[in-house]
Write a structure and sequence with these properties.
322 residues, alpha/beta, Peroxisomal Thiolase, Chain A, domain 1, 2 domains, 4-stranded mixed β-sheet, binds oxa(dethia)-CoA
Length: 322
């Protein structure tokens, strides 16, 4: 039966020009290229230029997604931007992106769920489109995450990078197995101390820096992600064998491999950008999705599974057909 649903009709991404290699980092803190590659799979990450803002990265990714979808900016009536590193405390960075795209109508707001942010933003936009509140959305994940790193803390500063990815999400009628099929997002605030920023507007009045007990987060990540994935699969009656492509949040190659193994997913179906991008938080899923669509791996009609886990803890999974 045909129902009102949302469809991803275009993708785009943007990476800042400057690259910081593992060897560069070994000159800054007590680490090595070998340790970072072995423990994380990361080889390099991109760093936003001085004066280059999250809204600049997001706008570039959004423009690429609009062009890819063949949609004019003036047709967009909803922007949901996932970020942990907004340009300013307020207004929402999404409204700055809206302005930079020349859009004066509709609604734009930010979603904050750290590394799971893109899935929370996609779930939010999908729900609003299904309800008929808006027609054409931009869902963006954008971060200048390196600005909240403590560059003297080797346990975190080697992991993250900057970037942005975007999708155009359009409403329309379709079958149950088309477009955005199912999403499952969850949080558990009791795990805050394992991954957080030690500053903020109402606590310290400072931006603060990322603090993480990496091995604890790692342990929870595989379990939480696997349960979210099982939820979207059982919700839709799909089996893991039905999945054409797996586009996970890119935190650590060992997490990607661990989740794929636990789910019984063929490793060849896993899209990995962690080596070249590092962990770009909310940007990592749309960046990886765009890359795999543009290089021809993910094609129209493919069934795609996505998942993420981040600070909060927050985690989730989403199933969609392109
Ligand atoms: O996206 C948001 C969610 N975040 C994640 O999913 C991250 C999840 N966690 C991880 O990816 C991994 O836990 C890390 C990559 C962060 C760390 O890997 P690990 O295998 O869990 O290492 P560890 O934290 O248990 O540390 C092992 C050793 C320690 O030394 P000792 O105590 O054994 O002597 C650390 O001090 O590695 C040391 N270490 C480093 N050594 C060289 C920690 N960071 C570094 C480093 N270079 N950069």
């Amino acid at each position: 039966m045909n129902t009102q649903r949302s469809f991803i009709t275009g993708t785009g991404s943007y990476l800042p020009a400057r690259i910081l290699s593992n060897t560069d980092l070994a000159g800054m803190v007590d680490t090595s290229d070998e340790w970072i590659r072995e423990r994380t799979g990361i080889e390099q990450r991109h760093i936003a230029a001085e004066g280059e803002l999250t809204s600049d990265l997001a706008t570039a990714a959004a423009r690429a997604a609009l062009e890819n979808a063949g949609v004019e900016a003036s047709e967009i009536d909803l922007i949901v931007l996932a970020t942990t590193t907004p340009d300013n405390t307020f207004p929402a960075t999404a409204t700055t992106v809206q302005h930079k795209l020349g859009i004066t109508d509709g609604a734009a707001f930010d979603v904050q769920a750290v590394c799971s942010g893109f899935l929370f933003a996609l779930a939010t936009a999908d729900s609003m489109l299904r309800q008929g509140l808006f027609n054409n959305a931009l869902v963006i994940g954008a971060e200048t995450f390196t600005r909240i790193l403590d560059w003297s803390d080797r346990s975190t500063c080697v992991l993250f990078g900057d970037g942005a990815g975007a999708v155009v999400l359009q409403s329309g009628e379709g079958e149950d197995d088309q477009g955005v099929i199912s999403h499952h997002v969850r949080t558990d605030g009791s795990k805050k101390e394992l991954l957080y920023v030690d500053g903020g507007v109402s606590s310290t009045g400072t931006i603060g820096h990322v603090r993480m007990q990496g091995n604890q987060v790692f342990r929870h990540a595989i379990a939480n992600i696997s349960s979210a994935v099982q939820a979207v699969l059982s919700d839709t009656g799909h089996d893991i064998a039905d999945i054409d492509w797996f586009v996970p949040h890119q935190a650590n190659q060992r997490i990607l491999n661990g989740v794929a193994k636990r789910l019984g997913l063929d490793e060849e179906k896993v899209i990995s950008t962690v080596a070249k991008h590092g962990n770009t938080s909310a940007a990592s899923i749309p960046l990886a999705l765009d890359q795999a669509i543009r290089d021809g791996r993910i094609q129209k009609g493919d069934l795609v599974l996505s998942e993420a886990m981040g600070g909060g803890f927050s985690w989730g999974a989403c199933l969609f057909r392109l």
